[in-house]
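Box 3.1 A note on notation
Throughout this textbook, protein chains are presented in two layers. The first layer is the amino acid sequence; the second is a token string describing backbone geometry. Keep the layers aligned when reading.
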Amino acid sequence: MTNNPLNSANNIISLSHVTAGYDKTPVLQDISFDIAEGHCVSLLGSNGCGKTTLLRTIAGMLPFSGDIHINGKSINAMKRKEIASYVAFLSQISSVYFSYSVYETVMQGRYLHKGLFFEKNRSDREIVDETLESLGLSQIAGKQITALSGGQLQRVMLARCIAQRCPILMLDEPMNHLDLKIQAEFMEYLANWRTTTLTMPDNKAYKPTVIGVFHDLNTAAGIADDIAFLKDGRLVLFAPKKGALTAERLSEVFDFDVVSYIKSHNYEFT
């Protein structure tokens, strides 16, 4: 296993010898790495290698052994509400069981800071309005989410995450089942958001940090600063993108010649 060389005071996430899984069956084994504030990390590996489990573990959703620190504090010493103030989680589109408006759904991102029955103040409304505007959702703010297309719904879910105003955003294959145009717009919104600065309740300013699982290699490579390769629940490599995405490494992680496959299936447009 190769760890990343980013040990510094600017690390917002640190894992040390983390093992985690489900029903006492380990999926991840002895994972250690650091993520620098403001970086985007793409997790790559075959289905079942532990990518989603890793995201859920860092977000405090699964029990684990080892150490995980967010902003220098062990998540074992953090309450669920405190973790939610640092980490927003966006997964694939799932079934919608309750019909909220777009505005109400995005406002739910504020609940995670203050509790379900909090009284919305001017700051909360300004944050939601600003988020809706930045993602092109203002015109459909009153529309019920059950009436949205898949692309619109996923954009709303991204807006809800951004409304949390968390310095860490975790993305679990967020663009599955979205058409190419919506995927491109989603990535543009995400890129714009990464240029912002977030101020936490402690009045410290943060550059947004992203950890993502992307099905498409081009998307993963395009957005990433660093790449984490997982195989069979173990970390193969965590390194800056440049130099990490080699044919040999991809073949090792995916167990077949990825580069040759991509080249052989290139379509020549006229």
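The two ends are 44 Å apart (CA to CA). The first helix runs from residue 51 to 58.
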